[in-house]
Write a structure and sequence with these properties.
Strand order of the largest sheet of chain A: 4-3-8-1-11
Oligomer: heterodimer
Strand order of the largest sheet of chain B: 4-3-8-1-11
Order of helices and strands of chain A: HEEEEEHEEHEHEEEEEEEEEEEEEE
Distance between the termini of chain B: 41 Å
Shape of chain A: globular
Helix content of chain A: under 10%
Largest sheet of chain A: 5 strands, antiparallel
Strand content of chain A: 25-35%
Strand content of chain B: 25-35%
Largest interface: A-B, 96 and 108 residues
Largest sheet of chain B: 5 strands, antiparallel
Shape of chain B: globular
Helix content of chain B: under 10%
Distance between the termini of chain A: 31 Å
Structural class of chain B: mainly beta
Number of helices of chain B: 4
Radius of gyration of chain B: 21 Å
Chain lengths: ~450, ~425
Amino acid sequence: MKRLLLPLALLFIATIASAGTVAKPIITENNASCEIGNYPAATLLLPYFEVDYRASSNTAVTTVFTVVNTSRSPQIARVTIWTDYGYPAMWFSCFLTGYDAQTFSLYEIIARGILPFTSSNYQRGTASAENSANGNFHSEIWCERAGGSLSMPMTERLQKILSTGKRDEPNCRVGGEHPNAIGYVTIDVVNSCGIDSPLDQSYWREVLLFDNVLTGDYEQINPDPTTGNYAGGSPLVHIRAVPDGGVAGSVAATALPYTFYDRYTPADAKKIDRRQPLPATFAARWIEGGHESFHTDFTIWREGVVGATKNECEYVRNATLPVNRSSVIRFDEQDNPSIVACGQETCAGTLPVVSATAAGGGSLFPPLASSNDVGGWMWLGLDNRVPGSTASAYSTPRPSQNWVTVQMYAEGRYAVDFDATALANGCTAPPATPSIVAKTPDKQ
Amino acid sequence: MTIENAASCDISTTPSATLLLPYFEVELGKRVNDAANTIFTIINTSSNAQISRVTIWTDYGFPAAWFNIFMKPYDVQAISLWDVISLGRLPRTSNSGSTASNPHFIVTESCASAGGDLSPDMLASLQAMLTTGVRSADEATCHVGGAHPMAVGYVTVDVVNSCANISPLDIAYYSQIILFDNVLTGDYERINPDANTGNYAGGNPLVHIKAVPEGGAAGSGSTSLPYTFYDRFTPTGGRKIDRRQPLPSAFAARFIQGGTGKFQTDYAIWREAAAPASSACSTNNVSAMPISSIVRFDESENPMVGGATQSATTGGSIGLAALPSTAAPPTASSVFPPLSSQGVAGWMFLNLDNRAAGISVSGNNTYSSARPSQNWVIIHMRAEGRYGVDYDATTLANGCTPNGGAEVMQVPQPQVKKAVK
C-alpha cells in the first residue's frame, strides 16, 4: 500500500480522533485489577512440583523455588505443600527480614526432611526495618525457631503422602500414586508462625494477611542424562490481595466476584482472603517431533471440588476432575483444528488437581492432525463444570480456577518452561470455545 | 478496582495488540545447528484474520527491518531470527484463497505475498545495522546500533490493518495502520547450541502489551492511560493514539553468580530510548542511557548501591551505570553494584528510569510528559553447560504509577556488611 495522505493531514486526523471520543474509564492503580501478572503479591503458587526423593541429589529430579520479600518490613511466609489431590500434606513458616530472599529445595525437604531454618532473631540487613516493624504482625509471632529438620518418621510420612496418597485412613487416598513425589505449593503472607491448618477457619480469620510484597520463581531440574539433562524455570504465579493491606481478619470490600481460596474460607466471609481468582481458559503452544525430537508437557493446576474438610476419604473426588474435551481444541501450524468428536455424554475426560500431561498423546487432548505438522497451539477450556457435575464447594456457580505451564524439551539439553496465555481473567466469563466441527485437515 | 479484561495498566500474559521480544541475539557466520539463535512464535487467538507487523529494532532502538505476516483465524507462526538475519528469509504468508476477514482491514491485496526473501543488498544492510550499527558505507559516522559480534536487538509485533510498508518512524503508522485488537499471544526460545559457551535454551512469553481500551479502526478512540508504549513515535496531538499500555521502570530481579554449579546470571534489559524518533544518528542519548538506581541485596540482605546515585556529602555523582535500548549484561559486570559478601545469590532492585541525567523531556519533545522511561527485564540464569532458564523479573509497580519502589531508593550508603546468618 502506498502512503495515502500527507503527514499534515494525518496529524489533523489524529488530533480529531483523539479529541472527538470519550475515553473508556480504566484503572491505572496497582493492586486494583483481576490480571495475574508478575507483581509483588500476597500469595505465590508453585503449580506443580516433582521430586525423585529416592535418587541421590546429583541425579534426582527436583524443584527449587525462591521467595523474595520486596518490602523493607519483615514478613512471615506460610509455605503449604499440597498433594496432587489438593490435600495439605504439610506446612511451615518462614520468617523473612526486610528485603530477604529464601530458596527452598523440595528435594531437601522431601528426601531429607530439611526445612529452611529462619528466625525473628536473625540480624537484619542495614537497609531493612527492625524485625518487629510490621504493624500487621500478631502480638506474639512465635518465629524464634521457624523451620528446621523433620524427624525421620515425619519425613517418611511426607514421602508416603506425596507419592502414594496414603495417610491415616488405610482405605482412602489424599493423593495419587506415582514414583516421584508430586504436588503443588502455596506461599501466603501471614501474621505469625502459628500452626493453624489451612483447613481451619482460624487460618483465614486470624492468620492470613494481605500485603502484596512477595515475589518468587521456580526451577524444575532434571539432571539425569538419560531422561533429562536440563532445567526449566518460570515465575511463580503471583496472586495479589485486592485491595491490599490490613490486619488479619479485616474484611475489606473487594469487587472480586470470588477468590482464589474460595473453597476454604468461612461460609460467612467467603471473600475474606481477597486473593485474585485464577482463570479457566488458556492458549498453550506445543511442539511434538521434528528433527530435534521436541516434546511438550502441559503442567496443569486445577481447583479441586472438595472444600476445607479433614475427611481424607473426600479427596478422591479431586482425582478425577472433569475436563470437557469438547472445550479442548488443537490447532496445527496450518491452523487445522482437531477436536475430539463426541457428544456431551461421552466427552468428559479427567485430570487431578495437578498433573503434567504430554501434549502429543493420551486420550485427553485431540489427536495430532494428519498434516504432518509438528507444532501448533491448543485452546484449553479447563472449567470442570461439565453437565451433571454438581459436587463442589464453590461459593457461587462459576468456572473453576486453573493454571497452565508449558514445558518443552529436546535433545537432552534444551528445555523451557513458560506460562500459557490466559484468554480472560478469572473475574470474567471464559471466552466461548471456538465453534469448530471436527473435520479432516484440509491442508497438508 | 476493575474486574474487566483489558481495562487496567497491569501487564499480564493475556492476548494483546502488541508483543515485545525485549532482546535477541543471533550468531551469524555459523550453521543454524551451531549458531546462537532466538526463535519467537506468535498466535492469533481470534476467529478473525489478523495482520501482524513485525519490526526488528537495533539495540539503539532504530527500526532495521519490518515485514508483515497475514494470519488466518487461530493461526500460529514461528519466526527464526537466524533465518531472517543470516539468510534473509522472511516468513511467507498470503491472504490468497482465504475467506477469513477482519472488519478493520483496509487494504488486503498487498498481503497476497507477504514476506519472502530479502535482496542481497537489503540483507547486507540488515546484518550491518544489527552488528556494527552502521546502515551503509555512506553513513559510516551515523550509528543506529552498537558494534558486537552477534546481531543484537529487539522485536515488536503489532496488530495492524494492512500489509502496508510504511515505516514505524512515520506518524502515519500510528494514526492509520496500527489496530487495537487484543488477539495476539506469543513466546520466545533463546538457543545456545555451542557446547563450550552454552548447550542450553531458555524461553519465556513475549511481553504482552494490551490496547486499552481495545477495538476499533485505525486512528480511532482514546484512552485514559497517562502515556503509552509508543509515546516516542506518536504524532503531536495524538500522543496516545496507539492506546498501548506503558511499561514500568522498577523491577526486582534475582541473581546467582558462583556456587558449586558455577551459576551465572545475565539481565536482558529493554529500555525506552531517550531520543526522539526522528533522530536516527543522535545516538549519544541512546547508546548509554543512565540508570537511576540499582540496589543489590545479597543472601544476608546486605545492600550495595549503584546507578546514578549522589554522594551524601558532596552531592556529586558517585556512580553512573548506563545501558542502551537493549542489552544483556552479566550481573557480575560493572553495570551492577558488586557483591558485598561471600554469598553467591540474592536479588536486585532496579530503577531503570533513564531520567537520572535530566535527558528525558527536552526541547525536541522525546516524551509527551515528564515521566519515567519504560523498561523490561528478563533474568537469564545458566549453569554447568546444560541448565538454562529465562523468566521475567518482577515489576514493582505498573507503568501508570511511576513511584513504585521509591522506598528502596532510600537505602543509605555506604553500606556496612553484616555477618552471614
